[in-house]
Amino acid sequence: MLADYVIGIDCGGTHTEGYAYNQKGKEEYHFHGGQANLMANANQAFENVSLILSQFFKSLNRKECKLILIGFAGLGVYGQQDKIIKKLGLEDMNVRLVSDADIALINVLRGQDGLLVIAGTGTVVLGQQGLQKIRIGGWGHLLGDEGGGYFLGRSAYKKVTDDYDEGQYTDFSNEFMKHLGVSNVFSAVNDFYSKSKSEVGQQALFVAARSDQLDEDAQLLIRNAATALSRQVILGISRLNIKGSVTIGLSGSLVEHNALYEETLRARVQRKCDNVLYTKAIKNQNNAKAAFYAYQSWQ
Q1: In this structure, is the dihedral angle defined by the CA atoms of residues 152, 158, 163 and 169, taken in order, positive or negative?
Q2: Quick one: 14 and 62 in the same domain?
Q3: What is the dihedral of CA 238, 222, 264, 139, to 10 degrees?
Q4: Sign of the alpha-carbon torsion through 256, 243, 137, 281
Q5: Taking every annotated instance into account, which residue ranges of this chain make up the domain ATPase BadF/BadG/BcrA/BcrD type (predicted)?
Q6: Rounded CA gap, 123 and 47, in Å?
Q7: Single pTM value for the model
Q8: Helix (H, G, I), strand (E, B), or coil: what is residue 271?
Q9: Is residue 287 in some structural domain?
Q10: b/e map 24-41, b = 16+ CB within 10 Å
Q11: Digit-coded pLDDT (tens) for 216-241
């Protein structure tokens, strides 16, 4: 039976992944289950996580577990950590509860201090320096998410309306309207307001494709989005007040799969801070690996 192990559980809004790692960080067991978003359905979240834990303890000695790290979606709003630990029957264990964003921070930075920049449909900048933790952005598409996929998709629609206001459509706007299956600005605007947040965010793929075809307007939209996010990264560096080099983890489709976006983001940050080390999550490594990194750094 495995001795001296840690368990990491990454809880999301659609599914939950649990892993057990040995002292060297090797994955030994993996179980998965349903959603565990505390704000969507707390009782179901507790049930799904409890089921995963019970599967671990059928194969592993409970007393040999050195740490259980659980990243819950919705933890920041739900709170009540003592109640959660009691609900899961873990009062006798070394348990740490963190948000789903914080478990990503620990995983990407391998348990070290620094910043995590997440740029998908939305954006958020998370930071940690010793006991200090910060969050910048991530307030949703109406209040924030600067530079994310929704921001970029919306900017494509905005380009169409700006061109109309100026009296002449650019090639980008004509191609974008063709892509939408509309023929004028009014239909484009109607299309925008009829789409969900995720559907608007998906239009970032069109902008990226046009950028790859060297469309200068599309490239400018990408640079503008990356610049918007860079301002939050620079603010994060300032707030953490890290002496020496700063480690920045990059996560999300925009910074992982769009070279121009990533290059622009790095260049803008470089202007304000020239001692930055960048890192990304290890490919196909679940955020539950944060349990191993956390145990190593918290000892």
Answers
A1: positive
A2: yes
A3: 20
A4: positive
A5: 7-266
A6: 30
A7: 0.84
A8: helix
A9: no
A10: eeeeebebebbbbbbeee
A11: 999 999 999 999 999 999 999 999 98
Quote the tokens at residue 83: 């109640």
Residue with structure tokens 């990226």? 208
Q: What pLDDT digit, counting tens, does each position of 244-297 carry?
A: 899 999 998 899 899 999 999 999 999 999 899 999 888 889 999 999 999 998
Record the tokens describing residue 234, joined without a space.
């620079």
Listed in sequence order, the residues at least 6 apart from 273 whose beta carbon sits closer than 8 Å to its beta carbon are 234, 237, 246
Are β-strands 95-99 and 114-119 bridged in parallel, bridged antiparallel, or unpaired? unpaired
Q: Is residue 294 part of a domain?
A: no
Cα separation, 87 vs 89, in Å, equals 5
Average pLDDT for the chain: 93
Domain of 52, in residue numbers:
5-93
Amino acid at 147: G
Written as six digits, the tokens of 18 are 């649990």
Measured distance CA(15)–CA(247) in Å, rounded: 30
Give pLDDT tens digits for 174-197: 999 999 999 999 999 999 999 999
Residues contacting 292, CB < 8 A, separation 6+: 6, 8, 21, 25
